């Protein structure tokens, strides 16, 4: 399966689409800006779910105008990047966080760079970027995480050699939460559990309202445009607390994601006024996912729940991220609070050079699309400070 680059008519001036071949088993589709002159410092942008490299289109010219070579790949499982196996029953290891980090290393190397000036990860791109900085601080000496806090790698028990060993017990917390959510009235299911299931790809690839309408509702309900987004910190990872979140995070059991978001489809006036995602731009997403389906993108939710792949991450047990770092969220994005305690662990333990937590006022989940100018200003200010610190 091979694909051509995106047509220039869908891209802002100065942003081009091309394929880079032979990277960790992939042919990677990238968008890039600031590519005209050699020697520019590299900024690498890693998207999340169900985004694409295209999601960075508004931000890329801002960073390029500031002197950077800006590159955003379609990540493994997404868009026009090929070389990954598509299906529910294929091996998950290629989609592991460590292998996705290797994809980033391979791309930087192929571009002829020894290091980046900054790596930025949004949503699922956030933990991938975090493991890039954790494993290769020489190549990724400056880190920005967006929407998904990084609580640190899973750890081995510490200082236990002289204690009586405790009986080994499997971590059943996810199963216990699923059981407790199912016992609520009405029964609920966490969105990650749903997205990791076998049926999710078919549900989302062939929604009854059509792919364009489903994606419009999904992008809208997670944005700052939807008035129901009033995120706050959850007191504990309990079913009762999770049930306080919107239904697109904690779904009614038995309902699909297209059925869940359909009631929140924006009005015709709201669609017309949505400058950050026009219908023509949304057509790019509908076309890409109409061709590939969602399974490659959904593999990440299965990776998060896979005991063997999580055990790999214990290689970094006790390690902190020691490069200049920044977290950016939206004041109307539940992503910052979706994992209770993660933000506190990130700020208190996981990062030793965290420059701060910046919350973009009025933005929902899609900060790089909703408020690219504000995001660009935050990134450029951080890059200057991180450069001086380095």
Automatic annotation (TrEMBL):
The keyword RNA-binding does not apply. Keywords: Hydrolase. The keyword Lipid metabolism does not apply. InterPro entries: AB_hydrolase_1, AB_hydrolase_fold, Epox_hydrolase-like. Residues 41-370 form the AB hydrolase-1 domain. Pfam families: Abhydrolase_1 (PF00561). It comes from the Bacteria. Gene3D superfamilies: alpha/beta hydrolase (3.40.50.1820). GO terms for molecular function: hydrolase activity. This is Alpha/beta hydrolase.
